[in-house]
Amino acid sequence: MARFVVRRLAFMIFLLAIVSIATFLLFSVLPVDPASLSCGQHCTPEKIAANRIRLGYDQPLINQYFTFMKGIFAGRSYGEGAQAFSCPAPSFGYSYYRGQCVTEMITNALPATISLTIGSAIIWLTMGIGLGVISAMNKGKIQDRVSTGLAIFGLSMPTFFIGLLLIYVFIIWLQIFPFPSYTHFLDNPFKWAQALVLPWFTVAIVSAALYTRLTRDGMLETMSEDYVRLAIAKGLPRRKVLVRYVLRGAITPIVTIAGLDIAVLLGGAIITESVFGLPGMGRLALNSVTDSDLPVIVGITLITAFFVVVANALVDILYASLDPRVRLES
Amino acid sequence: MSLDTSLVIEGKSPAQLAWIRFRKDKVAIVALVFSLIIVILALLAPWVCALLNIDPYSLNKTTIDSVGLPNAPFGGMSRAHPLGVEPGTGRDILARLIYGTRVSLIVALIATFITTLIGVVLGIWAGYKRGIVDGIIGRTIDLLLAFPSLLLIISLAPVMQPRLVAMGFPEGNPARMTYIILILSLFGWTYIARIMRGQALSLREREFVAAAQASGAKTSYMIFKEILPNLWAPIIVYASLTVPGYIAIEATFSFLGLGVVAPTASWGGMLADSVRYFRSDPAYLFIPGTALFLLVLAFNLVGDGLRDALDPKGERAQKV
Hints:
The complex is a heterodimer.
Chain A: H1 2-28, H2 34-37, H3 45-55, H4 61-74, E1 76-78, E2 85-87, E3 94-95, E4 100-101, H5 102-137, H6 142-155, H7 159-173, H8 189-223, H9 226-233, H10 238-266, H11 270-276, H12 281-290, H13 294-322, H14 324-329
Helix pairs in contact in A: 1-13, 5-6, 5-8, 5-10, 5-13, 6-8, 7-8, 7-11, 8-10, 9-10, 10-13, 11-12, 12-13
Chain B: H1 14-24, H2 26-43, H3 45-52, H4 73-76, H5 93-129, H6 131-146, H7 149-166, H8 173-203, H9 207-214, H10 219-227, H11 232-255, H12 267-274, H13 283-310
């Protein structure tokens, strides 16, 4: 087991390195000059050149890359003398467009995104797994038909349409909610939840549908395994077989996928956040694209990739500790 | 001894068996018919619109009032404009939906084809060869999965579209559609590749593979002639389930302003527009939205029906 963990973590670090290089190369093709973005109205070519040197964009790409990576671990300072400023570690660069360290912008956006992710994950996991279990236990009966019907309905609703529909029904038509304005949880938990209920469901509906299917299919497949047949033959009570044998076997792959889905969401739900105007990572990303604010785009890409790669590794390790077959295979 | 002809067992191909199972699935049949009607409408869009005497581009200024809202109720529904008119421009919604379907279907079908092609070839190759090929393909998949694809798609669009134009694609909407197709294919093939890899891993241990290898078959022959023919069922199922996903994604891109732009009709574009008329003309949200939902739903149901018909194993799960 220890060997597996070490190898998996080593691969994770390797993958992170590759991702960071790929991101850097990819975005170097963008014809955006971060140095000229900051310059404002009274801009001269000299000023742009000075900015470029200050930000390090005059360096060859490979040097830029290493300076950037060093910044993540040791922080980074820009400029010299009285105009010098620095972004403390972990530094993901500096947005001249906004005059802010990228890390600071991301930390400001994270609370909204984390709130959105956690709330919707709770909703979609309970709804999805619950409906899936009901469906599998009553295969072919009315409960199964209703659950699978709901699932395919949910799967066929594009996220932005769900969001618009919820806004229309609950905010404009029934006027149950005010138009969401995000409030920090610590400032006012009630307003926080009020602003997030609709976004939670917007994200959760599609995923819940997907998880209903995964749980149903997983359980039905596990039910045909020999060890389940043995448990039934031994005369174990139905409930015990379902919980101890079937659900347990079926739920492991779902946990794997849930880990990844949550990690991806932490990188920002671009659609939901922009439909509801939530000040999270997704909206920050979209705004940065509109503003051609390259350092922020790079920062968000890397952070999201980091979440996904780390979650992937953790899930693999968890999976291997639960299921010995995985360890032996690799 | 004479054979009773009524007892002769007729041989049936797997495709025939699948069709017999599919035919029993009423929901899937309805969905298939609906999908086919939509495809035909899209193919024949100019004639259909001429027949209904509607046009997606003409601005019917008489149907809207001075602030741009449709005069007739329910978003301007009338005999001349069965599904109403767009607020602001007065363009006919039904005609725009029919033409919008063309864009959706072209993008979704081509992207599905490329995705499936890449995924099938690379997946089988990895599973069959194992070793270093498997390693490289597997790590590429890991890498692609790590990237936030939607963010990359959005942020690279302003750069890549001009490059496609420089490569010879017509400027404007064709280049925009090509970009979406290419980028969906780039990120999309990983899913089917993993499924194909798993299947190939188990198939390569079978005797018929060993026999072909012993008679000196090359890798390409093994992939396309020996292994691939065994995998048509999962390929058809996953391809058919990819189409509705791509239809929804194409609409999402147009919604974000990345897809085709007006005056060309697009479903996502109409929905993005509808946000401005939320309070005054909700029909403009509901009609294109419902149309989009129904199309995606129909394709999903067809895919589901195919899965049930092509995967007889699904029936065998025992009851607990």
